[in-house]
Write a structure and sequence with these properties.
This protein is an all-alpha fold and 191 residues long. The protein is built from six helices and no strands. It comes from Scleroderma citrinum Foug A.
C-alpha cells in the first residue's frame, strides 16, 4: 500500500466537489428560471386535478429558497473539499476527520431526502409508472450521491487512517530496513 495522498481521492473529489455542486447549481438555475414547472413536476398530479398554471407568491418563494439551499450545499462542498486538499495536503488523518464531519450530515441528508420524498408521495410512492420525469431524476441523481457517500464512509477506494495507517507504517519500516538491491539507488526501489 502506498502512503496516502488524500482522504478524498480524485474519484470522490470529482464527485463531491464538482459533480454535486454542478447538479445543485443547475437545479437552482432551473427553479429560478421556471419555478412553476419545478413545482408542478415534483410529483404526479391526480387525473381529476391538473397542476396549477400559476402559483401563489409564497409557493414560488418556497421553491426558489429550497433550490437555493441545495445550491448552497453544493458550493460549500466545493470550497471545503478544495481547502482540505490544498491546505492539509500533508495531514491525511486531519483531512479525513474534516471530510467525515462534512460527509456525515450530507449522508443523513441524502437518506432523509429519499425517505421524505417517498413518504410525501403517500400511497403513490410505489406507482412508478405515474412518477414524473422530475421525480425519477430527483431519486436517481440522489442515489448517485448517496451510494458513493456510503462508499466513502466504508473506506472503499480510499485510504482510511484507522484501518490503513498501521499497515503503511509497517511497510515504510520494512523498506527502511531492507538492503538496497545491487545497482539500485535509494530512490529507485518500488513496492
Amino acid at each position: 500500500m502506498q502512503p496516502p495522498q488524500s482522504a478524498i481521492p480524485d474519484f470522490y473529489y470529482a464527485l463531491f466537489a464538482f459533480y454535486e455542486p454542478a447538479l445543485t447549481i443547475l437545479g437552482f438555475i432551473g427553479a429560478l428560471s421556471d419555478p412553476v414547472t419545478t413545482h408542478n413536476t415534483q410529483a404526479p398530479w391526480p387525473a381529476h386535478s391538473p397542476p396549477p398554471a400559476t402559483l401563489p407568491k409564497a409557493s414560488i418563494v418556497t421553491v426558489i429558497q429550497l433550490a437555493h439551499v441545495c445550491a448552497l450545499m453544493g458550493v460549500v462542498n466545493f470550497f471545503v473539499l478544495r481547502a482540505v486538499r490544498r491546505y492539509l495536503a500533508s495531514q491525511v488523518a486531519v483531512q479525513e476527520k474534516i471530510v467525515r464531519a462534512l460527509m456525515i450530515p450530507l449522508l443523513i441528508g441524502d437518506v432523509m431526502h429519499l425517505y421524505v420524498t417517498l413518504w410525501a408521495l403517500g400511497d403513490e410512492k410505489w406507482d412508478f409508472a405515474r412518477w414524473s420525469p422530475m421525480l425519477w431524476t430527483t431519486v436517481l441523481l440522489g442515489l448517485t450521491l448517496m451510494i458513493p457517500r456510503i462508499m466513502w464512509h466504508l473506506g472503499i477506494w480510499r485510504y482510511m487512517d484507522s484501518r490503513d495507517s498501521l499497515r503503511v507504517r509497517e511497510q515504510e519500516q520494512e523498506q527502511e530496513q531492507s538492503p538496497p538491491i545491487m545497482g539500485e539507488k535509494d530512490g529507485d526501489r518500488t513496492s
